[in-house]
Amino acid sequence: MPDPTVNRRPGRGPRAAEAIFDTTLRHLAERGYARLTIEAVAQESGVNKTTIYRWWPSKPALLRAALIHARVLDIDIPDTGSLRGDLIALTEQITRLLTDGRTEPVARAMTAGTGLPDDELAALTRDFFADRFSREQPVFIRAAARGELPADTDPMLLLDLIAGAVWMRVLLRREPVPPDFARDVVDAVLPR
Amino acid sequence: MPDPTVNRRPGRGPRAAEAIFDTTLRHLAERGYARLTIEAVAQESGVNKTTIYRWWPSKPALLRAALIHARVLDIDIPDTGSLRGDLIALTEQITRLLTDGRTEPVARAMTAGTGLPDDELAALTRDFFADRFSREQPVFIRAAARGELPADTDPMLLLDLIAGAVWMRVLLRREPVPPDFARDVVDAVLPR
Prior knowledge:
The structure is a homodimer of 192-residue chains.
Chain A: E1 8-9, E2 13-14, H1 17-31, H2 38-45, H3 49-55, H4 59-69, H5 83-99, H6 104-112, H7 118-145, H8 155-172, H9 181-189
Antiparallel strand pairs in A: 1-2
Helix pairs in contact in A: 1-2, 1-4, 1-6, 2-3, 4-7, 5-8, 5-9, 8-9
């Protein structure tokens, strides 16, 4: 159990959590999972390793928390007044995460999972994307309330198409992202 | 220059090319790029390493040839008589490549590129997907000839959406692929 006398943000970890998460993701990107160690993360984050172990008792637990809670991987859930506007804003944020020099290597390392036992990698990526998906729900709830979402629309399929297109274009095809890419992607998948 | 007296399939490499490609991809998946060696590939494929060097003078050249020419990563370009039918067949093949136990680890290793200098990885993935894209062109040429393809349709965007959705669902989100996934993906992106 965490020590209740430690000053902290509830549920998010110790005060140094942000520094710990940033170091964890940077080490993951630079060294790969196999050479990621709680000791090195603690040292570089300026905390005692027992502080990390108190909150996250294992390397997978620490990485999971960093992927889900690090501000650098955060997305703002848009509320532009239309489903189209919200999805374009989401697509632009996904594009930024997959092209920014700080976050692109993290996305690549997470996909690869090199050095992770396959079941741990599966659990990590599943948890990460399930958390994203649940955070994106308000976009679809508001769209349904506005009557913009046909009853047979599958939000997960829409998001797989949108996020997948960015992933393909940027990380796999390695082609440049045209200025109107977000708009074109969204217009291709929204019911007309 | 390759020795012209060696019996070979023109342009594809020596007679043992298929075994060499298979071993290359398996070693990539099992060991990662950094520990992939031409020596080990030669030994396990039953050829002399000079045979490999004669055709592919470097590790990136060998891996590039394996990714582009290995039968295990091949796709049949469908010709079902409709754009919808062709795209569903393509989507099913992409799903198979990303779920089959022999090819899924290759796809993952290629995405990750762990151990590859970033410019070599970029060149490899760019070449691989450019080759795929050029092979898929007949689907769109035939669709245009049948009048099925609106003039403003971007085939690369369609393929990014389709392949990206499979990639997201299978390798990233780690959710099961429903039986009608290929059909649903294609119906979501085809102009109605």
